[in-house]
């Protein structure tokens, strides 16, 4: 028996379908623009599968949004304060990535805080930023994290902070035998 889809996946699928329709693209056209297979796009829009972080990154690039912007579009209207228990959590179980939207989302603001967790062995590669040139500050709260930014590798431990301006590919890899937990501050250009 198939489990009911996650409500966030259902709303996300509907939003992705609406964005594609607004642009007047078929699934084949979107597949060509994003590099994501037609079947994955179709299954994601119907909430038959949860999108991975890499797939969402590619779609955000095509639609000119950050991942936080896209996910905030499927969440309820925010208050100025988001209590810890009300912060939206999204998990990519395939890659071992868990993302918590810490900041109250607001479409008029350019900055956001995100908590990330990668399980041991997790390795996520993004072929491009969702929008060109965001400024990112990555602060490791616990564990070890290897970050590659456009070919330059950075080895980070607890307490280390990396500042980068992202124009090319990035990679985040849990470098230790324990989970890595970090805060990512993102400022859209």
Which descriptors apply to this entry?
189 residues, alpha+beta, 6-stranded antiparallel sheet, 4-stranded antiparallel sheet, 5 helices, 10 strands, globular
Task: Provide a descriptive summary of the structure in words.
- β6 and β7 form a beta hairpin.
- A six-stranded antiparallel β-sheet has the order 1-2-3-10-5-8, with no helix packed on it. The protein has a four-stranded antiparallel β-sheet with strand order 4-9-6-7.
- The model has no long low-confidence stretch (mean pLDDT 89).
- It is built from five helices and ten strands.
- The protein is of the alpha+beta class.
- Helices cover 26% and strands 30% of the residues.
- The protein has helices spanning 7-23, 27-34, 38-45, 53-63, 67-72; strands at residues 89-92, 97-101, 111-118, 123-126, 135-142, 145-149, 152-156, 161-165, 170-174, 180-187.
- The protein starts with 6 loop residues before the first helix and ends with a strand.
Element string (H = helix, E = strand) = HHHHHEEEEEEEEEE
Distance between the termini: 46 Å
Helix proportion range: 25-40%
Q: Give the class from helix and strand content and strand pairing.
A: alpha+beta
Main sheet record: 6 strands, antiparallel
The coarse overall form would be globular
Unreliable segments (pLDDT under 50, ≥5 consecutive)? none
Rounded to an integer in angstroms, the radius of gyration calculated over CA atoms is 16 Å
- Count of individual helical segments: 5
Number of E-state strands = 10
In round numbers, the mean pLDDT is 89
Order the strands across the largest sheet as they lie in space: 1-2-3-10-5-8
Please identify the oligomeric state.
Answer: single chain
Beta content: 25-35%
């Amino acid at each position: 028996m198939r489990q009911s889809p996650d409500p966030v996946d259902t709303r996300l699928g509907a939003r992705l379908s609406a964005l594609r329709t607004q642009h007047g693209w078929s699934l084949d056209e979107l597949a060509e623009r994003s590099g994501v297979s037609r079947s994955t796009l179709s299954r994601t829009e119907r909430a038959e599968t949860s999108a991975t972080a890499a797939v969402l990154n590619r779609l955000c690039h095509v639609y000119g949004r950050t991942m936080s912007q896209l996910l905030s579009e499927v969440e309820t209207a925010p208050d100025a304060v988001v209590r810890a228990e009300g912060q939206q959590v999204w998990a990519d179980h395939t890659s071992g990535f868990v993302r918590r939207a810490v900041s109250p989302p607001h479409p008029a603001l350019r900055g956001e805080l995100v908590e990330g967790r990668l399980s041991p062995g997790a390795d996520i590669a993004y072929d491009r930023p969702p929008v060109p040139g965001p400024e990112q500050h990555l602060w490791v709260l616990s564990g070890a994290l290897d970050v590659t930014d456009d070919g330059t590798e950075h080895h980070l431990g607890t307490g280390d902070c990396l500042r980068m301006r992202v124009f090319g590919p990035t990679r985040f890899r849990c470098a230790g035998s324990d989970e890595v937990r970090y805060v990512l501050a993102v400022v859209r250009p």
